[in-house]
Amino acid sequence: MTTLHSHRQNWMNDTTTQGLSQDQLDRLSAILDQYAEQDSLSLEALDGFFSALIASPIVVSAADYLPVVFGGNVGDSAVLEAVAERDEATELLARHWQAVAAAVDSEDGPSPIIFEGAEDGVLGREWAIGFLMGMDFASERWDELFDAEEADAEREGEEALLPSIPLVAGASDPEWPTAPLSEEEADDIVATMAAAFMLAFDSFREERDAARGQAPSA
Asked: What domains lie within the chain, and their CATH numbers?
């Protein structure tokens, strides 16, 4: 188990963080924690937030998402002006973004940064909340994807993947879980969220390529 030196929790995995060393992850987490009073994202929430933006059907610029990372609204330059370590943080954030994007195309796929010891006992809740925040940039298209996937899953007699994210975030059922999850159940729900991220990434691929002015990916 790798330990993240932060007041938040213990870091569970490092498979998405090829772009940053442990020391650099610690530093990024420490910078974010300094702005917790203005509702900056934790490292776990940041990972979920970036995952949704990377999967998004639209291109979201750093100018739009950076204020959100530090607890502001889109275009809130005042929040960024208050970040003393802005240049250092921007570089670390860019490298982590690249690492998450690279993990999507890796053989093993993405593995969300999840912390142990969440205060409410729900493993992955901050990651899921961050993901939902990233979805807000293209909420209508995400709603359509959720509806389409749930319809497909119902036809196939399977469980839809995407609803796992608002469930863990506490957005679709604030009472869930009604009993503590076992370690195996917690690991399964995190794996389901990672699979949901991949499903969204693949589903929006053509739209995303078009938004970037690229030829459709193979």
From this structure: 10-211 (1.20.120)
